[in-house]
Amino acid sequence: MQFFSYLEPTELRRVHEASLEILEEVGLLVRSQKARRRFAEHGAQVDEATERVRLPAPIVEKYRAMVPPTITLRGRDPARDVTFPRKLPVIATASSAPDIVDPVTGVTRRATSHDIARIGHVVNELDGFDVFSISVLADDAPEGHFNLSRFYPALKNCLKPVRTSVLNPEEAQKVLRLGELIAGSPEAFWERPFINFGYCSIVTPLTMDFDSTENLMFFAENGVTAYGTVAPMGGINTPLSMPGMLAMINAEWLAAACLAQMSRPGTAQIYNFLPVFADLRSGAYAPGAIEVGIMNALVCQMARFYNVPAGGYLGLTNSKVSDAQAGYEKGMSPMLGALSGVDFIVMGGLLDALMSFDFGQVAIDDEIARMIKRVRGGFEFSDDAMALDDIKRIGPAGMFADAPMTLRDMLSATFMPDLADRQLRETWAEKGSHPIHDRALDKAMAILASPNHARLDKDIDARIRAAFPGIVEGDSRPYDGWLPRIAEGGGGRRERRVTSRRRSAQSA
C-alpha cells in the first residue's frame, strides 16, 4: 500500500541537513566519559571541560549508514520472534507504569511483581500483541532485585518477546544471567538471546544521560538486542513547531545511533520516539494528543529516508478510565501511524498518561491492535474479488447473503470483534446494559483462570531461585475475590474507582 506522508523528499533532506548542522555546531552534552572517549576515537570533537561532543557531518553520515534495515525481537518461543519491517506492524504493550487499577476493588494502587506475572499471562494469550513490553513497575521488589523483579515474572509467564529497561549494565548482567538459566546454559542463550532491552540515552534537549548511555554501549558491545526511545515534550524541551521538534530529535537519534555503531558496527536500531507536545494552558503532559500521531507520521518518513525500522508510542491517553476520551485518543494516533507506515507500535494497557495499567483496557487495546493490523493487511484485488459474475447473476433488488463468495468468505472478509457490542439496544439492555470495559475485564480475568501455557519448567525455576535467593515468586494466578462483571443471566457488579498510591500491602 502507499503510505500517507506530510513531507516532500526535498523537505526530508532539509530536516536531515538541519540535524547535521545541529550536531556539528551545537553538539550534545555527553555525561559518560567512556562515551566521550569513544566519540573522540571515531572523529568527533570533544571538549572534556564542558562535556560537549560535536559530530562533523561526514562522521554522522559514515556511522548512520551502518544501521541495519531490520531488527529482530526474540521470545522464549522461537515461533513468537518478530523481525520487522514486515507487512503488518509489530504491536507491543506500553510499559513502566507505577500504578495498576486493581481488578477486584477498582482502587488504583502501586503495582507489584504479582501483577506483572498476571499481565504477562494475559498478554501471552492476546493475539493483537506481538511483544510484552513490561507494563508496570514492581513496588514489592527486594533490595538489589528491582530489574529482576520485573523480568522474572514477565519471562516466567509469557512466551512472546519481553522487553523493558534496566538501571545500568550491572543490572543488565543479572537479567542476562536469568536468560541463561531459562535457556539451560550460557551457550544456548547466546545462540538465540531472547531478552530485549530498551533505554532512553537521550534526555532532550541534546543531552546523553550517564546510565542509559552506558547501557547503550554495553548492549551494543555484547550483541544484546536493544533499542532506544527519544521522548521530547514540544514547547518545553524542544521547539513548539513540528519541523523544529523533528530536526532536533532527529539529531538526537542520529547521535545515539552513531554511538551504537561506534561500539559495534551493524547494531540494530529502531527509529523510535514518543513525541509529545505540552498542553501549554497548564504544562500538562499530553501523550493522548493527536499531534503525537502527526509527529509519528513524520517519524515514519524519516525512518524510510534512513532505511531503518520506524517505531513509536501511539494509542496513549490522558483519560483515567476507559471512556470515550480513551477511545478516541487510543484509536486516532495508532491509525495515523499505521497509515503512515509505522513498523512498531507501543500502545497497550495504560491510562492516565502512562501512569496506570488496567486489565480491561489491555483487552480493549488488543482489539484496537487487531483492527490496525486489519487495515494494514489490506485486501485482495482481483477479477474474482470483483465478483462481477455474482453481480450480473443476482442483479437489481437481489440478495447476496447466500452467494457462494459470501458463504466462502463470511468469516474472513471482515474483522470480527470480541468485545464491541453490535446487538439491538433491547437485547443489550436485557443483558444488563454493560459497557465494553465490563466485557473486557471479564475476558482478561477469564484468561487468568485458564491454563498458563507459558509457565516455566519446575526444574528451571528451581535453578533460578537458587541462583537469586529472595527473588519474588513470579507466579500468575487469579485475583482473590474476583467476581465477573457480567454474571450469567445478565447481572454483574460495578466498582467505584479510587486511587491509593501509598506503599502498603498489595494484592497478592
| CATH architect. name | Alpha-Beta Barrel
Helix proportion range: 40-55%
Low-confidence blocks of residues: 504-508
Average pLDDT, rounded to a whole number, is 96
How is the main sheet built? Answer: 5 strands, mixed
Shape: globular
Return the CATH class.
Answer: Alpha Beta
CATH homologous superfamily designation: Trimethylamine methyltransferase-like
Arrangement of strands in the largest sheet: 2-3-1-13-12
Instruction: Note the total helix count.
Output: 18
**Number of beta strands:** 22
Name the structural class: alpha/beta
Beta fraction of the residues? 5-15%
CATH topology heading: TIM Barrel
Number of domains: 1
Q: Gyration radius, to the nearest Å?
A: 24 Å
> What is the rounded distance between the termini?
47 Å
Overall description:
This protein is α/β, with parallel strands linked by helices and 508 residues long. It has a single domain, classed as TIM Barrel. It is 42% helix and 13% strand. It has 18 helices and 22 strands. The strands form six sheets. Strands 2-3-1-13-12 form a five-stranded mixed β-sheet. A five-stranded mixed β-sheet has the order 20-21-7-8-22. A four-stranded parallel β-sheet has the order 6-19-18-16. Helix 12 packs across helix 17. The longest helix has 22 residues. The C terminus is likely disordered.
Structure summarized in a few sentences:
Helix content is 42%, strand content 13%. By secondary structure, the chain is of the alpha/beta class.
